[in-house]
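hey can u check if this looks right to u? its 271 residues, i copy pasted from the old doc so theres a chance i mangled smth
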Amino acid sequence: MLIISTLITCHNRKDITIQCLKSLFNQHGLGYELKIDVFLVDDGSTDDSSQAIREQFPEVNIIQGNGNLYWNRGMHLAWETASSYKDYDYYMWLNDDTYLFNNAIKNLFTDFYPNSIVCGTTKSIDITYGGFLKKDKKLINPNIHYQNADYCNGNCVLVPRNVFRKLGNLDPFFHHALGDFDYSLRARNIGIDIKVAPDFIGFCENHESIPKWRSNSINLINRFKNLYHPLSGCNPIEYFVFDKRHHGFSIACIHFISIHIRCIFPFLWSS
């Protein structure tokens, strides 16, 4: 039997989370028995997400957050709780807005790479999230073979027990963004491979848009407030630590300055 601990964080999108869980529990085609234990952090939802999940999926382990965890710290708490409960064979990160295809876990799981992280690729109209190569920073298209990546998004990622024992949990220093990139780059730094699964694993919309911290329509004070908000995607202090860790002190300093210049003078960059 394959036992997977699935880690999810949610906040105030009850219907989306329910659809994600339905797709998760509808997996088939592995050829052997699969047991899925779900550890879901409800990070301060006010839309009765926890109640709805308990009613439809009573087997889900719900952990209450304080509303200030966001993605990375929520996932850290879910992983910490799951690993304390049992020494699982595999841990799977899953965004609650990712709807898995019925063969997603079969697509992720491989006997050939038991010591590698396996990243799933999602799509909407086009490819949306997955694995990247450093040289071009472009998403890797699945091509029926397992491909090597340098880092990956955390929308759907399978982490074997052996990798977890070597690398541990996500770094809770990062509030929302960067935790997935940091984890995958730390893995590569100690020789752990990151593989892109050979086919798309599910559907997830691309959420890219012009952030408020570099929008001409917002005044400078509010741009700075948004820049330092956990959801900015570019918190300067967190980005500095990330850059220093993976790209060196000089690059970290350059990016720290350029982020603030971009916030002050957003009109210098095209929208």
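The first helix runs from residue 14 to 24.
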